[in-house]
Design goal:
Elements (H helix, E strand, L loop, with lengths): L15 E2 L2 E2 L11 H39 L3 E6 L6 E4 L6 H8 L3 E6 L8 E6 L1 H4 L2 E4 L8 E15 L7 E7 L8 H6 L2 H6 L3 E2 L5 E3 L2 E3 L4 H9 L3 E2 L16
Parallel strand pairs: 3-13
Antiparallel strand pairs: 1-2, 3-8, 4-6, 5-6, 7-8, 8-9, 9-10, 11-12
Length: about 250
Amino acid sequence: MGAEPARAARPRGARLSRGGLSGAGRSRGGGRSGAKLSGAALAGAGLLAMLAACDGSRAQTSGLADLRAQIDGSRVCALLIGPQWPIEGSAAMLAQPGVDALVAAGLVRRDPVNDRANVTPQARIAVTPLGERDLRLFRLSADSPPAPQLCLGKKQVTAIERNGDGPVRYRYRIVEAPDWTRRPDIRAAYPFVARLLDREQRAELGVIEKDGRLEVPGGIDQANVAEIGNTGFYPCPYEGAGPDDDPCR
């Protein structure tokens, strides 16, 4: 028998595979080191993003705590009938349906005033013990006269809103509202009561950042008065008021 033909020598460091000759000197796991580096880079980027999110979350939590310490529990109050104390006026004006609702709720009463110098019948509003629970005589400054206000409840901050470099604002609800705020006649005469109490509110006035903390400029009482504006428990319906400037709404 003839001798078998000699087999070709296998190159050192090479091996045969189904796909042909693999490259010589290939390291273990060769070709995968680049993938491993890409995975590490992605993991690092994810970690940085997570840390940034944590920092943002901590800032949000810290800002929320700052505002809650200043705002939560502050009273939301609206002017009661007139800007001066004691409350007096013409008997006809103080007989409007809005004042009727306040009387029916047991918050105030109407007392006639004997004023011979005034030919127009006059009346005075007296606040009852029930109404005194929610009455506040508010002074804008130490020199200003007291203005009677009726309080609807207390603020409770629910969230803060940051809009880039714009002002920081907060959202809140009014809690601990007194029972009379749920009366249908009060809500019919003063629609703003339901508007303020039945849904979350967004503060119109922004807050400022000072020394790394959020602060209400001017103090929360001043801010609450400015925010509610001219809305109040006036002798409604308010004569001559349009839909956009009706203080009863």
